[in-house]
Inverse folding.
């Protein structure tokens, strides 16, 4: 019986020791985990700085998106302006071409007008030769059909050009040319030629007036720019 008390006492002693050791170990761990006020202040400052940085990043992101939208609008506006400037440059080049300031080259047609080779006896000769009205009709039809530039016997026409008949010769901007009269036009020949040959059109009218007409498609026509004095005098 006494032996049982001894064993029980030893068990209780060991158990007490284990409880005491566990308590001490837990206390030391808690003490080691204790954060000082300075550490708390430092951690709070760091967290506050992180929160502030995140807020600033969000604001900067919003500003970036806003700037990107502005840049997009500016790019669209510049694109529109670029197209406007491109159209203006195209128009200027066309006007310079029309007034003869620049050389022009391209496909086109060549229309040759000749006096009638035979005049019946007793007929008025003037009814069988080319007059300025015939040349005007051809030139107008060519321009209406989209010709970019026109010349008569190599004399390039401008917006101030004049043509008149003086007997068997035609005067173009002060320069006289005898028959045959070669009217050259730069433009799409697939449009110009059908417009001249339309039924009841200019070719039929010229034939009715006893004028000999020939039309030829040209793959390359070049017209030099008009000299300043030519444009001024015309």
């Amino acid at each position: 019986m006494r032996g049982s008390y001894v064993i029980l006492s030893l068990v209780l002693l060991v158990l007490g020791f284990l409880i005491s050791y566990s308590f001490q170990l837990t206390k030391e761990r808690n003490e080691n985990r204790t954060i000082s006020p300075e550490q708390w202040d430092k951690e709070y400052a760091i967290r506050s700085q992180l929160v502030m940085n995140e807020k600033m990043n969000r604001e900067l992101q919003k500003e970036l998106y806003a700037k990107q939208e502005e840049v997009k609008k500016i790019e669209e506006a510049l694109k529109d302006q670029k197209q406007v400037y491109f159209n203006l440059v195209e128009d200027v080049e066309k006007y310079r071409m029309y007034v003869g300031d620049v050389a022009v080259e391209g496909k086109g047609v060549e229309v040759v007008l000749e006096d009638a080779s035979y005049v019946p006896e007793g007929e008025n000769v003037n009814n069988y030769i080319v007059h300025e009205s015939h040349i005007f009709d051809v030139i107008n039809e060519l321009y209406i059909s989209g010709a970019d530039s026109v010349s008569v016997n190599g004399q390039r026409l401008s917006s101030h050009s004049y043509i008149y008949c003086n007997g068997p010769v035609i005067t173009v901007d002060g320069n006289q040319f005898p028959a045959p009269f070669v009217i050259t036009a730069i433009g799409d020949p697939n449009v110009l030629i059908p417009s001249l040959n339309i039924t009841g059109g200019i070719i039929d009218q010229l034939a009715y007036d006893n004028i000999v007409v020939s039309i030829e498609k040209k793959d390359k026509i070049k017209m030099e720019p008009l000299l300043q004095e030519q444009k001024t005098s015309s």
Notes: The CA atoms of residues 195 and 201 lie 8 Å apart. The longest strand covers residues 212-223. The chain has two domains: 35-99, 105-233. The two ends are 150 Å apart (CA to CA).
